[in-house]
Amino acid sequence: MNFYPHILILAAGRGKRMKSELPKVLHEVLFQPMIHHVLDLAFAIPHSSVSVVIGHGGNEVKKSCESYSNLQFFEQKEQRGTADAVRAGQGFLENQTGHVLVLSGDVILLRKKSLENLLKLHESEKAACTLVTTHLNNPTGYGRILRNENCQVVGIREEADSSAQEKKITEINAGIYCFEIGALFKSLAKISNQNRQGEFYLTDVIELLVQQNAKVIGVPFEDPEETLGINDRFALAEAEKVLQKRVNRFHMENGVTLQGADNIWIDTKTEIASDVTIESGVRIRKSKIASHCKIEANSRIERSSLHAGTKIRQGTVIDESTVGEKTTVGPYAHLRPESCLGREVKIGNFVEVKKSTFKDGAKASHLSYIGDAEIGKEVNLGCGFITCNYDGVTKHKTVIEDGVFVGSDSQMVAPVTLGARSYVASGTTVTKSTPPESLVIGRVKQVTKPGYAKKFLKKT
Ligand code: UD1
Ligand code: CA
């Protein structure tokens, strides 16, 4: 295809039917705002430019799109309809030659391939407008496609303005169009808002083009899922289901086992190698999972990287962290941002790790908090280990060098360093750094009074 359209995404509407303070296009589908799905699609197809029309909550929408470069925004000050939204981009587009692909911020399931086919057809047919349609069993809410006796598209009727007869039409407008730029703006200038909603409808352009004998082609998409418009939270849930199924299928085809796939949510940005097994209730976002990992039920993994053969046990949360080869985390563990575990590390149940590194073979098997710490090779942290890293004002660092053994119920009052191969007796509060190979004991001496238990109990 040697055809590079400008792409204009309409995203200024409030989304009344969402009943939300959040602008509609910022509602998330599979962990990503709707508008990001549309932008990913726009940038994936050949284009000359990509622009977004913003309005309601414009600043928020713009901010959420910061990670996309080469993107321009046009402001539609008042939301007076889709034709008016396109006009917001007129100043820029009118000076361009060629064609504009208009996408809708709430139609997120279109496939790249389908859009490319649409553009090819638009090009080969030298059409003034090529638009996406589909047939729905329940077309309620969508604009209906009007065709003449020769089956040519002659107009679009919005639901609110349609007669009882027109309401029976099952072919709907998906709100996705490719226009020849000159023809589009000539017709846009003539549109009025004399309709039931008092809006300037982009759909009215179609009838005007037909009246001028310009070529308009309606392309029915076979799969109605692609054209789903997200107007309310029910449709949002429907769209999420469709996308979830697509993503899961992709991974299963690549050799990933999903046990209870309907209950596993993986975003479109995650990469998973083959022979990974994922159990029900797992959510994964923006992560990279190497081969032979196992992720047990109800775990949540975000912005993280799991190396080959790691085992994430039930109910574990991993955020912005790296887990080394053959390491085990959980059940019910929490890796908070900037944690980095080496090879064959063990983080056991009810252990929280924050901004800390564990070198190869280190272990914290039970009920611990490790924050702002460097844990050396083969270190063993006993049950109830705590880094006291925060003095109420600043965070301090704990360093535990290679081969240290820390007995249960010990606390490190940071900043503190334990020299390599030291041994900390259980129940010790470490307040001073130690040289290597030290024995550290810091606990109250035990007092034993034989036979006193009975006397004591009698008294109390
Ligand atoms: C629109 C179409 C309808 C089609 C449906 C497909 C019109 C008049 N109707 O209806 O034929 O079946 O999409 O999903 O075009 N927007 C603006 N500024 C505005 C109004 C809307 O930017 O002033 C944006 C919205 O943010 C949204 C898109 O345009 O992303 C579509 O608007 P929406 O109100 O959802 O239109 P529908 O009623 O769904
Ligand atoms: Ca819509």
| Main CATH class of the largest domain | Alpha Beta
Q: Which ions and ligands are bound to the chains?
A: uridine-diphosphate-N-acetylglucosamine, calcium ion
Percent helix: 10-25%
Tell me the Rg in angstroms.
Answer: 31 Å
CATH architecture label name of the largest domain: Alpha-Beta Complex
Name the CATH superfamily assignment of the largest domain.
Spore Coat Polysaccharide Biosynthesis Protein SpsA, Chain A
**Estimated structural class:** alpha/beta
How many structural domains in the coordinates?
Answer: 2
Number of strands: 39
Molecular shape: elongated
What's the overall average pLDDT, rounded?
Answer: 97
Q: Major β-sheet, in short?
A: 16 strands, parallel
Low-confidence stretches: none
CATH topology of the largest domain: Spore Coat Polysaccharide Biosynthesis Protein SpsA, Chain A
Tally of separate helices:
10
Oligomer: single chain
What labels describe this entry?
single chain, Spore Coat Polysaccharide Biosynthesis Protein SpsA, Chain A, UDP N-Acetylglucosamine Acyltransferase, domain 1, nine-stranded parallel β-sheet, binds uridine-diphosphate-N-acetylglucosamine, binds calcium ion
Explain what this protein looks like in three dimensions.
The chain is α/β, with parallel strands linked by helices. The protein folds into 2 domains: 222 residues, Spore Coat Polysaccharide Biosynthesis Protein SpsA, Chain A; 208 residues, 3 Solenoid (UDP N-Acetylglucosamine Acyltransferase, domain 1), CATH 2.160.10. Helix content is 20%, strand content 30%. It is built from 10 helices and 39 strands. The strands form 6 sheets. It has a 16-stranded parallel beta sheet that branches. Strands 14-17-20-23-26-28-30-33-36 form a 9-stranded parallel beta sheet, with no helix packed on it. Strand 4, helix 2 and strand 5 form a beta-alpha-beta unit. The protein starts with 5 loop residues before the first strand and ends with a helix.
